[in-house]
UniProtKB/TrEMBL annotation:
This is Putative inorganic phosphate transporter 1-7. GO terms for biological process: arbuscular mycorrhizal association; cellular response to nutrient levels; phosphate ion transport; response to symbiotic fungus. Signal peptide: none annotated. Belongs to the major facilitator superfamily. Phosphate:H(+) symporter (TC 2.A.1.9) family. InterPro entries: MFS_dom, MFS_sugar_transport-like, MFS_trans_sf, Phos_permease. Pfam families: Sugar_tr. One of its GO terms (cellular component) is membrane. Residues 512-533 are annotated as: Disordered. The lineage of its organism: Eukaryota, Viridiplantae, Streptophyta, Embryophyta, Tracheophyta.
Length: 533
């Protein structure tokens, strides 16, 4: 390539080496924390309901009122959406590295603070929890565009997909860790307090000491984030940002010489030529961007939006599904802490058997099969399994067929992770120009979180039973789990169609994909835009 910079080419052709793995771990630990913090709340919401909303003498233990439940589970997602847009933009303005430490500090502080509360009234506790979980989400949001962009800019072109997917796959371990921490804490308390179930003795089934359980589970999220802070601060800025955006060829060559342990020359003239080139100056809200990348951005935002509706609604009504099929007994048959244990056990099993393996299948195969094929296949199988669960739903709800239901349900998760859940994260970090890469990834990720909010809030209400006597306390009747699953199947099918807008990035350099590496780069941009069929 006539206009390609030596320092970027050196990164593209570098053999897989130690610094690649340190980058995966540093970026991945952020993701581990993100997933832990976002998903651990679903393990303790039932306990919060018992602690703060149990009426003396009621037939059933207390549950969070619908508005409180929606706020507690959804407020972090709203924070994440805002954080993705803000930090995505900031990452292109100030540099990836400078913003990276900031998001981590925010996550550590807010993880710890969400386990504290001002006042002991239910309102006070919930308000504090929601306030800090919003800002926790805000920090988590920044991690999405920054981690993906840093990893894609550090990686070589042969295994770039696997590296970015490996960072994302740490999410699986985060979900797993949430379940394990809740299991350990609840088991320890269960052993110590050995209390009767709610049906046997409503007052005795709850001990004030259980208030520590949810706080410990939430605060634990600060530990992995705090551990990686030092390493994040030692990481040099990516060469692509330094050279193509900050226009500092000397610094880029010096940083990468250290990282790659080879001598690289500073190509100041080339950097000036590339960055002064008119076709490398267009902004996000320009006709030129719309012409070159408009359809790409539409593809990455819509697919992530549609995927997350399905993905987050599954995760959120997971415990309701477990109750419906009998994995978790009715609330009144357990004491407060035993319920946490049962929910955590079910979530850990699902994570272990389907969530975690799905991610690593993507890591192993993404640079062979390509992003496009994996995303299309994932959406296809999610559609198939959703319909297979929904149409004979009555059959699955009978006692002897419950294991079959859980297997099918796990397969849906498996193909979400060996499919669009991973690829929607990878692709936006590869196909946009360096000066807009973090912003465009943030926009795509924020569209995903908007889908998560629709999934989390919408399906909280939609999955309620059509029979008024069977709905959860305080909820209006919904369309039932069967119809909710049919809707999710349709959403996955639409996701399959929008995947056709997303280009294949396998085996190409980032500059080739975005058309930044050549003075007359129009033909590159076009060739990178064609979609494999």
């Amino acid at each position: 390539m006539a206009g390609e910079l030596g320092v970027l080419n050196a990164l593209d052709v570098a053999k897989t080496q130690w610094y690649h793995f340190t980058a995966i771990v540093i970026a991945g630990m952020g993701f581990f924390t993100d997933a832990y913090d976002l998903f651990c709340i679903s393990l303790v919401t039932k306990l919060l309901g018992r602690l703060y909303y149990t009426e003396p003498g009621a037939a059933k233990p207390g549950t969070l009122p619908p508005r409180v439940q929606a706020s507690v589970t959804g407020v972090a997602l709203c924070g994440t959406l805002a954080g993705q847009l803000f930090f995505g933009w900031l990452g292109d303005k100030m540099g990836r590295k400078r913003v990276y430490g900031l998001t981590l500090i925010l996550m550590v502080v807010c993880s710890l603070a969400s386990g504290l509360s001002f006042g002991s009234t239910p309102e006070g506790v919930m308000a504090t929890l929601c306030f800090f979980r919003f800002w926790l989400g805000f920090g988590i949001g920044g991690d999405y565009p920054l981690s993906a962009t840093i990893m894609s800019e550090y990686a070589n072109k042969k295994t770039r997909g696997a590296f970015i997917a490996a960072v994302f796959a740490m999410q699986g371990f985060g979900i797993l860790a949430g379940g394990v921490v809740a299991l350990i804490v609840s088991y320890a308390y269960d052993q110590k307090y050995k209390l009767p179930s709610y049906a046997q003795n409503p007052e005795a089934s709850l001990d004030p000491a259980f208030d520590y359980v949810w706080r410990i589970v939430l605060m634990f999220g600060a530990i992995p984030a705090a551990l990686t802070y030092y390493w994040r601060m030692k990481m040099p800025e990516t060469a692509r940002y330094t050279a193509l955006v900050a226009k500092n060829a000397k610094q880029a060559a010096a940083d990468m010489s250290k990282v790659l342990q080879v001598e690289l020359e500073a190509e100041e003239e080339k950097v000036m030529k590339l960055t002064e080139n008119e076709s490398n100056k267009y902004g996000l809200f320009t006709k030129e961007f719309a012409k070159r990348h408009g359809l790409h951005l539409l593809g990455t935002t819509t697919t992530w939006f549609l995927l997350d509706i399905a993905f987050y609604s599954q995760n959120l009504f997971q415990k309701d599904i477990f109750s419906a099929i009998g994995w978790i007994p009715p609330a009144k048959e357990m004491n407060a802490i035993h319920e946490v244990y049962k929910i955590a056990r079910a979530q850990t099993l699902i994570a272990l058997c389907s969530t975690v393996p799905g991610y690593w299948f993507t890591v192993a195969l993404i640079d062979y099969m390509g992003r496009f094929a994996i995303q299309l296949m994932g959406f296809f199988f999610m559609t198939v399994f959703m319909f297979a669960l929904a149409i004979p739903y009555h059959h699955w709800s009978e006692k002897e067929n419950r294991i079959g239901f859980v297997v099918m349900y796990s397969l849906t998760f498996f193909f979400a992770n060996f499919g669009p859940n991973a690829t929607t994260f990878v692709v936006p970090a590869e196909i946009f120009p360096a000066r807009l890469r973090s912003t465009c990834h943030g926009i795509s990720a924020a569209a995903g979180k908007a889908g998560a909010i629709v999934g989390a809030f919408g399906f909280l209400y939609a999955a309620q039973s059509k029979d008024p006597s069977k709905t959860d306390a305080g909820y209006p009747t919904g369309i039932g789990i069967k119809n909710s699953l049919i809707m999710l199947g349709v959403i996955n099918f639409i996701g399959m169609l929008f995947t056709l807008l997303v280009p294949e990035a396998k085996g190409k350099s980032l500059e080739e994909l975005s058309g930044e590496n050549n003075e007359n780069d129009a033909e590159h941009a076009v060739s990178a835009r064609t979609v494999p069929v």
